[in-house]
């Protein structure tokens, strides 16, 4: 058995969900399952008894507020694992803690409480009630909790507004497009406002453009709510777009856990590489992922002749210029410096130009790569205070997109 991976343990109070050695043997009695799991090849032993090993020895941790994605091919055990978290699926063995509380031994009453208030779930087919209005569908989880009608309608409308369905509450599901229906399902989960949300391939049935919209919607909501979410998908592009952490599964086991960029940069095995080869890197990599320090920077107070000499020493044609507060003023070119020297200017203020392109750290490579190579300096990454975060050289973009392994950058 290879490929087992355990995440580093963090501060326990930051952890929302902890799974330890979770195993699910389908179709066997407890006694038979326990025996089969002791065999040298548990999967074969479970199968020999007529069962199926859906998840085996899975350990993972989800931090509070994190979007944790479970990814893998069909049959890899994603749903098996997800449904253990609210015990729609009873683990055969292993431990599961939610905010430190042991879920495996929770009573029926406690479990109902958890499912109503703490752990929401969104499925691939949102299973809306066809004869109820969109508002009543969105309010369903609140009704189950016994919330009075006026209040639950108010909250349902607020949730519908958040998913872009303001004013659609009176409609019926069949009057909405597929993408809009999925929004109702999302609103239903949001209306309850559970601290934990489980989502099992919620966007898989949507066509690619609508799916992209839904991913953006979810990311936007997540930026506001920071809700602990476990999201199942078989699409690494989707995982990369929305996930903070991605756990890759195969045959009921964990193959790799990490941030999307780490998985793309260092796939653990051929199975993961296969996913990675399908990733549209231009859509998932951001400026932040490729940024490196700017090599040549100058203070606006610098004399033009000194500045020109430094350009020459660095074999550069241009450099970044900062004001006394370290804010980026612009760039200077060698020719502008020569003009400033000839005009006897004391500093660089007269030579600074805006001949550069800036992007914010979270800009997607595909959206700014066309700017590359047009200017004096590489594409410039600045934060909201116009402080320089670094540059993205064209070679870094080309190498990331061609998947040439990057060696270390300072
Ligand atoms: N109730 C069950 N009884 C027997 N086997 C099951 C049961 N539920 C799931 N399995 C098997 O366990 C394996 C893992 O199933 P699971 O539904 O977790 O996969 P998945 O990764 O969610 O796949 P998909 O992407 O198709 O949804 C599959 O081979 C499936 O056939
Ligand atoms: Mg599934």
TrEMBL record:
Transmembrane segments: none annotated. Coiled coil: none annotated. Keywords: Amino-acid transport, ATP-binding, CBS domain, Nucleotide-binding, Transport. GO terms for molecular function: ATP binding; ATP hydrolysis activity. Pfam families: ABC_tran (PF00005), CBS (PF00571). Residues 37-276 form the ABC transporter domain. GO terms for cellular component: membrane. Residues 291-348 form the CBS domain. One of its GO terms (biological process) is response to osmotic stress. Belongs to the ABC transporter superfamily. PANTHER family: GLYCINE BETAINE/PROLINE BETAINE TRANSPORT SYSTEM ATP-BINDING PROTEIN PROV, GLYCINE BETAINE_PROLINE BETAINE TRANSPORT SYSTEM ATP-BINDING PROTEIN PROV. This is Glycine betaine/L-proline ABC transporter ATP-binding protein.
